[in-house]
Amino acid sequence: MSDFFKDIPAIRHEGPQSGNEFAFRHYDPDEVVLGKPMRDHLRFSVAYWHSFAWEGGDPFGGQTFERPWFGDGMEKARLKADVAFEMFGILGTPYFCFHDVDARPEGADFAENTRNLREITDYLQNKMETTGTKLLWGTANLFSHRRYMSGAATNPDPDVYAFAAATVKTCIDATHQLGGENYVLWGGREGYETLLNTDMGRERQQAGRFLAQAVEYARKIGFDGTILIEPKPQEPTKHQYDYDVATVYGFLKDFGLEKDVKVNIEQGHAILAGHSFEHELALARELGIFGSIDMNRNDYQSGWDTDQFPNNVPEMALAYYEVLRAGGFTTGGTNFDAKLRRQSLDPEDLILAHVGGMDACAAGFKAAARMLEDGKLEEARTARYAGWDSEAAQAMLAGGFEEIAARVEAEGVNPAPRSGRQERLENLVNRNL
């Protein structure tokens, strides 16, 4: 045990009227919505990297946080784990996620990295067995170290590819040992800055083979969790090969992996790609590759990924509506890929950021459930496309332009525009908030 969170109580649900900031107002894990408890719908997870590894820097300034576990060595890594699991207990979050470098110190070489990871994996396993906290997903950090400045799978140096592949193997091993329900491949630098020094075709082939090798290895060792790719646009490289859901799906189809890999979609990344969060979720559902979500928000006045804790309930209601339309989470969940502002220095800030995020998610989710239960949005959608259910419309799709043109001429087809009724539907959404 540590004293980092001393005097901070376990967070309980007290209802909307509570004035206690260390309490949930909307998130009651035992509340049954659409037939099951909210904890099983939302499947909250804490991100190890932002909450325990990030030092408070930004592109224009360095470290602002001082944490007793910052530093090298396994003793610091174990202290970090102790504090992390204390926070999971305070919040009652059922899951966490981590990169290898979040949990273990960086070694001098691959062998030392592997020893450190295995040692901390055993320590995490003991903590998990003691507390009941589970691993939503594991992943490898293939972007921070200078060796990955030109990518990992897409690197022009085959030795970097080899180091990255060996690292992913160890991280899949760790995720499997810890009973992780998913494994994520996050291509932080799988892209390019200029075509002047880039062989795009070669790099895409390397990325496709790397992903296939990861899937092959995971299945070989008996890992039956979901393999996920997280779409990531723009930063840090200008042109990312995994830009958005549509790009990822095309990539998966190209390499025959669309049945093996799904997507982990982040709100902030959706915005950087020029989409809404609900757009990316809906497209993933339609393509059959929806898996999990990273919940955060961006500052819409900034052009980069600010990873702020979510607080926009209307946005989250629309996002969770698409999650529910996809059938809800199976192995996936709601991971808070969000970090404190670099001026928020206190332990209480870390707890309250998650309390607020969990409450906002719960409020958005319950609004989404109400919209799904009353069925009016779906009724309006069905009515708008009802004409396509007719035999004539279906025959048109089965035929060709000649038959269509003949029908238009024979029947004097001359359609009048019909309202999309967008404002009415926006009002309907707002009535459920």
From TrEMBL:
<comment type="similarity">
    <text>Belongs to the xylose isomerase family.</text>
</comment>
<feature type="binding site">
    <location>
        <position position="266"/>
    </location>
    <ligand>
        <name>Mg(2+) 2</name>
    </ligand>
</feature>
<dbReference type="GO" id="GO:0009045">
    <property type="term" value="F:xylose isomerase activity"/>
</dbReference>
<dbReference type="Pfam" id="PF01261">
    <property type="entry name" value="AP_endonuc_2"/>
</dbReference>
<keyword id="KW-0963">Cytoplasm</keyword>
<feature type="active site">
    <location>
        <position position="102"/>
    </location>
</feature>
<feature type="binding site">
    <location>
        <position position="307"/>
    </location>
    <ligand>
        <name>Mg(2+) 2</name>
    </ligand>
</feature>
<keyword id="KW-0413">Isomerase</keyword>
<feature type="binding site">
    <location>
        <position position="337"/>
    </location>
    <ligand>
        <name>Mg(2+) 1</name>
    </ligand>
</feature>
<keyword id="KW-0460">Magnesium</keyword>
<dbReference type="InterPro" id="IPR013022">
    <property type="entry name" value="Xyl_isomerase-like_TIM-brl"/>
</dbReference>
<feature type="binding site">
    <location>
        <position position="266"/>
    </location>
    <ligand>
        <name>Mg(2+) 1</name>
    </ligand>
</feature>
<keyword id="KW-0859">Xylose metabolism</keyword>
<feature type="binding site">
    <location>
        <position position="230"/>
    </location>
    <ligand>
        <name>Mg(2+) 1</name>
    </ligand>
</feature>
<feature type="region of interest" description="Disordered">
    <location>
        <begin position="412"/>
        <end position="433"/>
    </location>
</feature>
<dbReference type="InterPro" id="IPR036237">
    <property type="entry name" value="Xyl_isomerase-like_sf"/>
</dbReference>
<feature type="binding site">
    <location>
        <position position="294"/>
    </location>
    <ligand>
        <name>Mg(2+) 1</name>
    </ligand>
</feature>
<feature type="binding site">
    <location>
        <position position="305"/>
    </location>
    <ligand>
        <name>Mg(2+) 2</name>
    </ligand>
</feature>
<dbReference type="GO" id="GO:0042732">
    <property type="term" value="P:D-xylose metabolic process"/>
</dbReference>
<feature type="binding site">
    <location>
        <position position="269"/>
    </location>
    <ligand>
        <name>Mg(2+) 2</name>
    </ligand>
</feature>
<keyword id="KW-0614">Plasmid</keyword>
<dbReference type="InterPro" id="IPR013452">
    <property type="entry name" value="Xylose_isom_bac"/>
</dbReference>
<dbReference type="GO" id="GO:0005737">
    <property type="term" value="C:cytoplasm"/>
</dbReference>
<dbReference type="GO" id="GO:0000287">
    <property type="term" value="F:magnesium ion binding"/>
</dbReference>
<comment type="subunit">
    <text>Homotetramer.</text>
</comment>
<feature type="domain" description="Xylose isomerase-like TIM barrel">
    <location>
        <begin position="107"/>
        <end position="278"/>
    </location>
</feature>
<feature type="active site">
    <location>
        <position position="99"/>
    </location>
</feature>
<dbReference type="InterPro" id="IPR001998">
    <property type="entry name" value="Xylose_isomerase"/>
</dbReference>
<protein>
    <recommendedName>
        <fullName>Xylose isomerase</fullName>
        <ecNumber>5.3.1.5</ecNumber>
    </recommendedName>
</protein>
<keyword id="KW-0479">Metal-binding</keyword>
<keyword id="KW-0119">Carbohydrate metabolism</keyword>
